[in-house]
Amino acid sequence: MGPHPAVAAIRLAVRRVLHDILNDHTPTSGGPGRQAVGERPERTAERSPSPLVLVACSGGADSMALASALAFEAPRLGVRAGGVTIDHGLQPGSDLRADEVALRLRGLGLDPVESVAVTVGREGGPEAAARDARYAALDAVSERHGAAAILLGHTRDDQAETVLLGLARGSGIRSLSGMAAVSGAGGRYRRPFLQLDRQTARKACMVQSLPVWDDPHNADPAYTRSRLRHEGLPALEKALGKGVVEALARTAQLSRDDADALDTWARQAEASVRDAAGLLECAKLYALPPAVRRRVLRRAAIEAGAPAGALFARHIEEVDRLITGWRGQGAINLPGKVVAQRQGGRLVIRQG
């Protein structure tokens, strides 16, 4: 008899991601970073050092299920598997809990395993600050060990919540695209569970008798995502029926495909709207579709030194009015001391 369906599902998701990592990691006759057709991963792994894949684990059901699946699948594919847990220091006894999670990861056979303490600032709110501190620590651990990838346990439910949060911000189609299956520098972060629901991960832990820690912050109404999880989504399902989470996750993928296509279009269009001196020509910008034009403007602002994280839709809309609603208005101040102004039919974006 095979494994429980929930266990089989999480292992299959992890196996697929490990195959992708091996293909990216191992040079073969099929070209750099690609596995030759019909060639087994075990053979390709012999041609270069086995890649190290880490799992980021909080001790919750999602990440514990992910850690167990990685521990099972990695040796079968010639991949080294390790783990890391982050102590945010936001709750009493968090250091002891982090040590306990690290012990559980070692018990699964993962090596190396690290427990890293971070200091969470205040910029952007508690959730954003904790996330920034966590990813900075994960980046550092990955670089220290030369890891090929870090697996994250975000599920389809997390994706649905992310889409709704993006919708509430009104940040455009990129926010609606949610979390990418592959992200970070060089595709460092991989999310195998984006097509699996939270209950599948929890069930997999239960049938494998894996201890699970439930973060009290996930039920604290002081946090936006917690309110959305326990109040917002249930209210939507009550009003609209079951299937809301699946529909939102599907929306994320469709939005990501659209946003990627528009980004590509904007990159290609940018060269055609610049003059010989490299300045943006307002008439040619005006002829572009708004979604493409605003992406060109955003790229230009970032290249001039505006921090991407501080550059909001309202900033780009103000710059866009220099193109579409020109009435002789003055310069537009952007984050990072960047200034945008119209001069003789050209749009000049530079450090002020």
Automatic annotation (TrEMBL):
ATP binds at residues 58-63. The keyword Transferase does not apply. Keywords: ATP-binding, Cytoplasm, Ligase, Nucleotide-binding, tRNA processing. Residues 53-231 form the tRNA(Ile)-lysidine/2-thiocytidine synthase N-terminal domain. GO terms for molecular function: tRNA(Ile)-lysidine synthase activity. It is found in: Cytoplasm. It comes from the Bacteria. InterPro entries: Rossmann-like_a/b/a_fold (IPR014729), TilS/TtcA_N (IPR011063), tRNA_Ile_lys_synt (IPR012094), tRNA_Ile_lys_synt_N (IPR012795), tRNA_Ile_lys_synt_subst-bd (IPR015262). This is tRNA(Ile)-lysidine synthase. It comes from Streptomyces camelliae.
